[in-house]
Amino acid sequence: MIGTNIYLPSSTIWKRKPMRSASKSFTSYVPENVSGRTSQQSGRPTVFSTIFTASCIIFLLTFSPGLTFASQILDLDGVTERALENSHDVKLSSLDIHISRSMQKRAYSLYYPTFNARWNSEYVKDLSGGAPQVTAIGDTIISESTYYHNSLSVAASYNLFDFGSTRKKVFIAKKDVDVKMMVYIRQIRDIKIKVLNLYTDLLTSRKELEAKKELLSLYKELSLTKERLYFAGAISKIEMVDEALSVVKTLEAIDNLELRLKTVLQDLSFYTGEDYDANSVKVQEFEGCEQDYENSFNPEKSPEFRMYALEIEKKKAELDILKRERFPQFGLYSRYVWYGQDRNNYEASVNDIRDRNYFIGISATLPIFEGFKTNAEMEKTALEIERLKVEKQKKLAELINRHAKLNETRVMHIRGLENQKDMLAKVEEKLSMTKRLAEQNVADLIELLNRRIELINQRLELTKTMITKVATIKELQMLSEGVN
Prior knowledge:
Elements: E1 12-20, E2 25-33, H1 47-63, E3 72-74, H2 76-86, H3 88-108, E4 114-124, E5 134-137, E6 140-143, E7 147-161, H4 165-231, H5 237-272, E8 281-283, H6 303-324, E9 329-342, H7 346-351, E10 354-365, H8 373-439, H9 445-480
Parallel strand pairs: 3-8
Antiparallel strand pairs: 1-2, 4-7, 5-6, 7-9, 9-10
Helix pairs in contact: 2-4, 3-4, 4-5, 4-6, 4-9, 6-8, 8-9
């Protein structure tokens, strides 16, 4: 009776069944017959069931819009290009550049004169009843007469000299465009690095999932082999259960990897704007970076360094403008006036319009006292300059530290890669020897399966190390790309 309940691998699948003990319940994976029938239930399908099944398949293939067999092939360059095209941050940075260029044009307008035209049409009613006269009190003019009058004036003004304040304002506008360009370059670099990290995680998860599926078949075969030995009385039940637990752990790892793969694809879809199917997507290997990384990192050529340097230059120009506002500003002004009036009729006052006067003059404006406002703004700007200097040093320290960590990771992976290659060669040699011994009936099937499992695990570790090494080199190259 011992050998009558052995399940063969070719007709066995693993299914979850709840197992209960005195203290807790857990899920176990036990083998079942694939057909799901006993010998009394087996039978050949009828003609009607065959036709019905074929009709359902044809209907699904024809009318199901979500059913697709086309596989999606992803490569790093294509994914990065689509992410840059779809990135909201990159689009916003591009718009900020155009906005700054518009502000630069506005700053250039300070070099040109301004012209204004003004039309006034009034009716004045005298309420005093006295003789017609005009009285002026300060800026108020009182007309003691009743009449219609109209005026048209054209005025021009021009900034003659302001000790370089206008030039500094144009300088600030130019530097602001450069700042927005640095932000744009930094956004592109950051998007590339984010996509690289997601692609690395995606490629690693795919490789690990393929290895786990390959391991699952070996663990099942190993579990079934030990099950036979247990029913034959060759091993204990504990050894058989240990192998069954390995199958359960592998299935759980596959579920976690599939979930992780879907999560990474969803994150990648956020950047590219495309939908990905975890079951049909294919991830290509990294291209390039066969050679080692040549350290050309210079933090002073990074976008962050240029951004803070430009912001400091802008603040210094603002400080210069505040200092120059204490000096007098000279301007040129001119006006040409047409005027007409009539006591009784509005149309007659319009027809009476003719040129009356023209004047031109030079003005000088000197602020004497404004409540120490300029002093406070100068102090504030000077402190902002010091703050920007500290922020620049902090950002440079972060970049240098980030680069140093990545470079150390690269060196560590290079060393580990050589060790893992040696270990893989030894595992392959051990597997080859085990195969020869198995052919000579010296080694058993369990030993051969264990060697295969060890080989798959070692290949997976080597693949993951190679992927991480190439990804690290690519990220180092992205960080080392300087700004011309």
